[in-house]
Amino acid sequence: MNVLSTWILSLLGVIILGIAADLLLGGKLKNFCRSIFAAAAVLIIVLPLPTIINKGCSDIGTLMNSEIPPDNTYISASTDYIADKLEKGTEEALKKDGIEGIEVKITLKKGEYTEIERVEIFIKKLVIENEMLHINKYEYLKKKVTEFLQVEEEMIRIYE
Amino acid sequence: MEKDKDINGLLENLDTSEMDNYLSQLDRDEKLIFDSGSVTERIKEIINGDIALDAGNFFVYICELIGLSAKKILPFLSTVLAICIACAVINSIKGRFASESVGDMVGFIFSALIIVILSVQVSSLVLKAKDMVNDIEKQINIFFPVIITLMAGSGATTTAGVYQPMIAIFGTGITRLMVNIIFPLIIASLVFGFISGISSSIKLKKLSDFFINAVKWLMSVSFFIFLAYMGVQGITASVYDNVSVRMTKFALGNYVPIIGGYLSDGLGVIISGSVLIKNAVGMCAIVLLLISVIPVILQIIIFGLSLNFLAAVAEPLGCEQVSTLLSQIGKSIKTIVACLFGVTFLYFIFIILVVLTGNLII
Where does residue B53 fall: left (phi above 0), alpha (psi -120 to 50 degrees), or beta otherwise? Predict the structure, then answer.
């Protein structure tokens, strides 16, 4: 804006001088002065052009690479909601298979609703049906959870 | 219903503090148009189906704005009209009771007087226009991060990624183009219009027209390129997200029915809840845009019309110089209105496009 105001003021100055000369002078001198001031005005108008052309525009690249980070609270809350549903579903499915009292905690990959990162099973209050007392509960649980959640066994941790 | 409870729960986790801060800065009449004390409450109302705005209040607000703007312009109108009448009187006595050079000098003084009065009015309007563009930039920086979050939350992650640089280009690039290049060009055209109005021997009218044409071309080209790029990118990305979400829903069949049921239920709430909230936020953004833009545009339009009226009145009074000056300045004012309409329309289309392409995933 400073450049623009300087430019406009210099142009205005030349024009006002030209008007003053136009009003005060007469005859051939008036025409001569008019031509001089007109040439000066054209020179001032054209003068900033080389600077503007050489400056160019290189800021678009910076703008294209800028990011607006999403609100992580909302994304985390949404992911937690889905994880909660998966946990309830897994507990219900295991209950149907005769395993009750366990707590399932599922960690999803951030922002991904179906990509499971880790499954933790807490079996402190585990209750198994009589027919299944002889089984290896850890292997059975891992096998069932792998089948239910379509995950690798390495992702499952069981805690007492 | 439980689903409504879940959606409200999602909304509680959304950071709407900046939107509420912006709303709190509006005056009483503007808040009445928005129809709610807080953005969160308005979003909840829209989600529950209360979409309609109070048309009566809106119409009254517009009429009040027009009345106020017209009232503000009356002193300026009457002053310039009085100068035109004095100019007409001087023109009629020129040659008989006063010499030609005295007549020219008096005409020069009247033109200078009108220029001084006009420049005060015009500079305040240009400042208001600049403030409006800065306000639009502020709104973009407030609303779009929330909309992008909701898009990402609803599964439209590719679309959100495509729109992120677009928002930076619009929020910073286009608004900076307006404030740093277009408005200075308009100011230059105004200044040359004023200078050429001082005396008929100063011929800078074409230079003023050149700046106006440069502004029109710059705006048209930059807006067209931006809209075209945004449209193509956004629609392509949203189709990709649509396929991804459909594949996810299809993959739910691989789970045992109980888990599949829970997951399907959860995904349904998250995706549709996020989409509903996003649409509601988009609607709030549009209403706030209109509230911030309409007063400024109306004021500038009324000023432009008054200049045309004065030019029409000055011409038969014999004040050719004044009439030409007022017409020339009127052209520049029209260009300012066109720029403001352009940037408002661009922002409006941008919101609609972002909201609609985000809906394509469901």
Answer: beta
Q: Is B144 in CB contact (< 8 Å) with chain A?
A: yes
Query: Which pLDDT tens digit goes with each residue over A27-67?
Result: 888 888 888 888 888 888 777 777 766 665 555 555 555 66
Tell if the CB–CB gap between B266 and A85 is shorter than 8 Å. yes
How confident is the model over B199-234, as pLDDT tens digits?
Answer: 777 777 888 899 999 999 999 998 888 888 888 887
Share of chain B above pLDDT 70, in %: 94
Domain count, chain A: 2
Same-domain status, A88 and A141: yes
Residues A99 and A50 in one domain: no
Residue B14, SS3 per DSSP? coil
Contacts of B13 (CB under 8 A, 6+ apart): A73, A74, A76, A77, A78
Q: B-chain residues within 8 Å CB-CB of A19?
A: 108, 198-199, 201-202
Q: What are the C-alpha distances in Å from B109 to residues A155, B90, B112, B199?
A: 88, 12, 5, 10
If asked whether residues A155 and A78 sit together in one domain, one would say: yes
In tens, the pLDDT along B113-158 reads 888 899 899 999 999 999 999 999 899 989 988 998 888 888 888 8
Structural Rg of chain A based on CA atoms? 40
**For residue B350, what are the domain limits?**
2-359
The tokens of B41 are what? 């409450």
Q: Say yes or no: A81 and A58 in one domain.
A: no
Q: Is the pLDDT of residue B303 over 90?
A: yes
Task: Report which of B155, B144, B186 is spatially closest to residue B270, judged by C-alpha positions.
Answer: B155
d(CA A69, CA A10): 46
Instruction: Write out residues 68-127 of A within 8 Å (CB-CB) of B.
Output: 68-71, 73-78, 81-82, 84-86, 88-90, 92-93, 96, 111, 113-114
CA-nearest residue of chain A to B169? A63
Residues A47 and A94 occupy one common structural domain:
no
Asked if the Cβ–Cβ distance from B266 to A86 is below 8 Å, we say yes
Contact of B245 with B8, CB cutoff 8 Å: no
B149 to A12: CB separation less than 8 angstroms, yes or no? no
Token duo for residue A131: 């027919």
d(CA A82, CA A78): 6
Closest-CA residue to B356 (of B239, B196, B250) = B239
Q: Which residues pair with A122 in a beta bridge?
A: A103, A159
Size of interface A-B (CB pairs under 8 A): 136
Q: Which domain holds residue A31?
A: 2-64
CA pair distance B322, B83, nearest whole angstrom: 10
* Domain CATH code at residue A117: 3.30.300.30
Q: Number of folded domains in chain B?
A: 1
B contacts of A22 (beta carbons < 8 Å) = 199, 201
Shared-domain flag, residues A120 and A140: yes
| A89 and A107 part of one domain | yes
The verdict on A11 and A37 lying in the same domain is: yes
